[in-house]
Amino acid sequence: MLSGMWWILACAPSGPPDIVLVSIDGLRADRTSFGGNPRPTTPSLDALAAEGIVFSHAWSASNESLYSHAALLTGLAPPEVARMDYATFTVPPAVTTVAEALRANGYATGGFVAGGHVKASFGFDQGFDTFEEGPDFGSFHATVPLALDWLARTEGPRFTFVHGYDCHRPYGHATVFHHPFDRAYVGPVDAWVARRNATERILDGVYYAGLDLPALLHATGLRMSDPSGYRTAREAAARVPPWYRTPLDAADLDHVRAHYDGGVLAADTYVGMLLDALRASDRWDETVVLVTADHGEDLQDHGFYNHRASLTDSTTRVPLVIGGGWLPDRARGRVVDALVDAGDIVPTLLDLAGVTPLAQARGHSLRGCWTSACLPRAAAFQIGVLGQVSIRTATRRLVYDGATPADPTLAARIGAADPASLAVYASDTDLREQFDVSPTDSAGTRQLRDDLAAWYGALRLSDAAAKVPAEVTTMLREHGYW
C-alpha cells in the first residue's frame, strides 16, 4: 500500500506548471488542418491537438491585433482596458496583466514578440521580467529562439509568451518555404503578395493599382494604417481608372489563399520547433502549452484581404489548443464544442497556476472542460476597430455597425438601433455569413440586440488613453491628423 502511494506521489507534479502561451497573429481557425483546411498547413499543431484539447468554437475579442492582445493578456473586454480610440489605445499601468499576476505568485515571466502592434510601447511588456522584440511585423523564426534561450537560462515555474506574424498580411514573408502550395499557378499574384499594401488593393475580386488606404500617427509615434479607410475603400476604388483595374479569377484568388496558407505552415513549423524543444526538456511533464490567435483573416469572404474591415467568423473565429505533458490523461484527445472566447484565457492560465482569479476578468477557467463539467457561455462578444460590435451565439451572429465604442450611451443605442445599422447571420448554416436574416427573424433579432446591449451596458468603460507627446501633437496637426 505504501509503495503504491509513494509511486503516485512521485509521479504527481512537484509544483505549479510552466505555462507557454503562443499567439499566431492572424490565424483563422478553418485554415488549420485540424480546423478543416484540406491543405496540410499545421502538422505540428495537429500533433499537439491530438494529444491535448481542441476548442472548436473559440472567438477572439476583436478583429485587430492591438485590441485583441490587450484582451488576451488582461481578461478584459477592449473598452475596459483603455478608451477605444485607435490613435491613443495602449494597455495602461493601472490594468493588471496575466504576466503581472503570475510574477506576483512566484513565476519567472518572459515575453517574446514580433513587434508590430504588440510592442512594449503599447504597454504589453507589463509584468514580464524579460521582454524582447524581434524584427517589426516579423516571424517566429526570430521569437522562438529568443524564447528558448531565455528558458535555458531560467528556472521554473515560468510563464512564456511567444508571438509571430508569419501568416499575417501581406502573405509574402520570408519563410522556410517558397511555394508549399499551388505551385503550378501562373498569374499576377506572385508579384503582389510580398508588397506591403498590394493585397489590400484587392477589393471584391478586382486589383486596383495605386489604391492606398490612409495612415495615422499613433500616440506612441508609430505610423499605422487608418482603419477608417476601409469604410471608404470602395468609393476610392470606384475612382480608379479602368486601365488600372485587374479583375481576378477564382484561380488568382485561391492563389492568394495559398500564400496565406504557406504562412500558416511557416508559423506551424517554427512553433513546432518550440514544441519539440519543450518536449525534449526535463520540464515537459510540468508544462502546459496554450496556442491561439488574436484574430482571423477575411480572404475575400467579405471583399477584402485583411481582418479589420468586417466583424465576422472569418476575422474572429480562432484556433484554441491546450496541450503539454502536465495535462492529465483524461483531457487528451478531447474536442470541446462549447462556445469560448479570449476572455477565458487569463482565468484558465491562473487556474492552472493555482493563482487566485483576477477580479477584473469576465471569463471563466476552461479547466472544467478537462472533464464533462465544461461551463459553456451563451454567447461571445467582439468589438471591431471600425466601431462595429457583435454578439455570436452557437447559431447566430448580430453585427451592429456605426457605433462609437467609447460612447457610454452605446448600450441604449444598440437597443433602439435602426434595422439598417445591423445585420443577423445564420452562422451555423450560412458559414461565410453572407445573408442577413434579420428581416425575417424579428423576434430572434430583438433578443440578440437586447443581449448585446446588456453586455455592453455592464462593461466598466475605461477612459485611459496614452498621453500624446507635444512634438507628436504638433506633427499630427501639421499633417492634418489632429
Commentary on this structure:
- The chain has helices at 2-11, 43-50, 65-74, 78-81, 98-103, 140-153, 229-238, 250-280, 313-316, 345-353, 410-415, 442-458, 470-478, and strands at 18-24, 53-59, 108-113, 130-133, 158-164, 202-203, 206-208, 215-217, 223-225, 245-247, 287-292, 317-318, 320-323, 334-341, 380-383, 389-392, 397-400, 422-425.
- The chain has 482 residues and is an alpha/beta fold.
- Strands 1, 2, 3, 4, 5, 11, 12, 13 and 14 form a nine-stranded mixed sheet that branches.
- α2 packs across α8.
- It is globular.
Gross morphology = globular
Please, what is the average pLDDT?
90
The number of helical runs is 13
Helix content: 25-40%
Task: Say how many strands there are.
Answer: 18
Measured by DSSP, the beta-strand proportion falls in 15-25%
Please give the alpha-carbon distance between the first and last residues: 75 Å
- Report on the biggest sheet: 9 strands, mixed
User: Radius of gyration from the CA trace?
Assistant: 22 Å
Class by helix and strand content? alpha/beta
Poorly predicted ranges (pLDDT <50, ≥5 residues)?
1-13
List keywords for this structure.
single chain; alpha/beta; four-stranded antiparallel sheet; 482 residues; disordered N terminus; nine-stranded mixed sheet
Spell out the blueprint of helices and strands:
Layout: H1 2-11, E1 18-24, H2 43-50, E2 53-59, H3 65-74, H4 78-81, H5 98-103, E3 108-113, E4 130-133, H6 140-153, E5 158-164, E6 202-203, E7 206-208, E8 215-217, E9 223-225, H7 229-238, E10 245-247, H8 250-280, E11 287-292, H9 313-316, E12 317-318, E13 320-323, E14 334-341, H10 345-353, E15 380-383, E16 389-392, E17 397-400, H11 410-415, E18 422-425, H12 442-458, H13 470-478
Parallel strand pairs: 1-5, 1-11, 2-14, 3-4, 3-5
Antiparallel strand pairs: 2-12, 2-13, 6-7, 7-10, 8-9, 11-13, 15-16, 16-17, 17-18
